[in-house]
Amino acid sequence: MLKDQKSTYSGLLFVTFGAILIVYSLSTLETGTVARMGPGLMPILYGSGLLLIGAAVILTANQRTSISPMSWPWRSIFFVSAAIVCFAAGLKPLGFMGATFGMALLSALARRKTSLLHAVLIAAVIAAFCALVFIYALGIPLPLVGF
After folding, report:
1. Rounded to 5 degrees, what are φ and ψ at 68?
2. Residue ranges of the domains in the chain?
3. 99 CB burial (10 A radius; 0-12, 13-18, 19+)
4. Residue 11 and residue 45: Cα distance in Å, rounded?
5. Which residues pair with 65 in a beta bridge?
6. Phi, psi of 9 (to 5 degrees)
7. If 0-12 CB within 10 Å is exposed, 13-18 middle and 19+ buried, where does residue 142 land?
8. In whole numbers, what is the pLDDT of the chain averaged over residues?
9. What is the DSSP code string of 2-62?
10. Residue 2 pLDDT > 60
11. Tens digit of each residue's pLDDT (9 = 90 or more) over 26-64
12. What angle do CA 133, 122, 70 make, to 5 degrees?
């Protein structure tokens, strides 16, 4: 049995994502130099950071634990993943407000104790706040409603 399975697998996940980011950046983007950075330099630095974090997590795993898929928070995993997909897929047809509202609503429903009314209120406040910050204060050119 592995030492600490949770830490070991988490560290391997960091290492995997870091390696994928580095390989992708080296194969598709120009890196440039530190004095004259190319678009691939920052992803390589981030990937290296992920590799280092992953290695540190793996090396410090010293307890014995096991992972049971039955104990995972499947409801939260589902709703948070669905929220990300909702925002990405809904931005163009629903606009910024609709996509943000849908994302916040699904994220709020990830918690079992949140009622539908509270989730709707949370989503409305978050959508309005994000519209104020990103569209009006920062001037990001996103459509408020679908087009």
Report:
1. -110, 120
2. 5-66, 73-137
3. buried
4. 18
5. 4
6. -70, -35
7. middle
8. 87
9. -SBHHHHHHHHHHHHHHHHHHHHHHHHS--B-SSSB-TTHHHHHHHHHHHHHHHHHHHT--
10. no
11. 999 888 887 888 888 889 999 999 999 999 988 887 766
12. 120
Q: Which tokens sit at 52?
A: 């280092």
Residue with tokens 């004259």: 36
Q: Which two tokens stand for residue 136?
A: 């009006």
Instruction: Note whether 34 and 41 are within 8 A (CB).
Output: yes
Q: With contact defined as beta carbons under 8 Å apart, do 144 and 122 qualify? A: no
| pTM of the entire predicted model | 0.58
Tokens representing 86?
């909702």
Alpha carbons 46 and 54: distance in angstroms, whole number = 12
Residue 59: phi, psi to the nearest 5? -70, -25
Angstrom distance (rounded) from CA 86 to CA 82: 6
Hey, what amino acid is at 65? T
Secondary structure class of 83 (helix, strand, coil)? helix
pLDDT tens for 109-135 read 999 899 999 999 999 999 999 999 998
Q: How crowded is residue 61: how many other Cβ atoms within 10 Å of its Cβ?
A: 19
